[in-house]
Amino acid sequence: EIVLTQSPGTLSLSPGERVTLSCRASQSVNSDYLAWYQHKPGQAPRLLIYGASSRATGIPDRFSGSGSGTDFTLTISRLEPEDFAVYYCQQCGSSPFTFGQGTRLEIK
Amino acid sequence: EVRLLESGGGLVQPGGSLRLSCAASGFTFSSYAMSWVRQVPGEGLEWVSVISASGGTINYADSVKGRFTISRDNSKNTLFLQMNSLRAEDTAVYHCAKPHINNWRAASEIWGQGTMVTVSS
Question: Measuring CA to CA, how many Å separate A108 from each of A11, A102, A104, B67?
């Protein structure tokens, strides 16, 4: 099983700041199957990035993804108030598919 | 509009069974793989299972293998999750999800709101 470790666990930031979230895999992940999601309480998760770097439909261009092999990142170039949520990475290249434990973005 | 609506959750005793359903609309259900993902309240997301469009490819998380069975009825646009030998640690909100493309490994773009399963005596 591929274990995904996200860091940091929690970030306290202000609107307008730039943030980079990390997702590190225990073994190499096929980049075609690395995704990032945003999750807010009481809502369904929202797909942000698929294929490590492709934005999903309707996702603002302030969200970007990069990486390959075992190291992947999600960058939000300028935080908006609605971006404060929990972010998860997921790999679907090798079964069982796995999620990272999540990074919580909090408003400072 | 693409929609997924889960049902079938509830309170069940340890060792009991429950069958979840996910009614799909707004897309050609028979053309897409489908997944189940769960979230324990206050914790992270956990992938549970995936089934290909035809049902020929199925995979499970180790934590549910041998106890849960995923299936689908393409004539009724419905996904199922049969859950047997339920344990307290299966308590979670269960979401069904549709990938962004027809590939059983693809990321999940559309999610249902979820149905709550509580396993407790």
Answer: 9, 19, 12, 44
A48 min Cα distance to partner chain B (Å): 9
Determine the 3-state secondary structure of B86 from DSSP.
coil
Record: contact A88-B45, CB cut-off 8 A: yes
Q: Per residue in B66-95, pLDDT tens?
A: 999 999 999 999 999 999 999 999 999 999
Segment B27-47, tens digit of pLDDT: 999 999 999 999 998 899 999
Residue A8: asked if its preceding bond is cis (omega within 30°), the reply is yes
- What length does chain A have? 108
Q: Across chain B, where does the E strand assignment appear? A: 3-7, 10-12, 18-25, 34-39, 45-51, 58-60, 68-73, 78-83, 92-99, 108-111, 115-119
Tokens, residue A34: 């690395």
Pairs of residues, one from chain A and one from chain B, whose beta carbons lie less than 8 Å apart: 68
What percentage of chain A reaches a pLDDT higher than 90? 96
CB contact under 8 A, A44 and B109: no
Chosen from B2, B34, B103, B105 to mutate, greatest number of chain A CBs within 10 A: B105
Mutation pick from A92, A94, A99, A101 vs chain B, by most beta carbons of B within 10 Å, is: A92
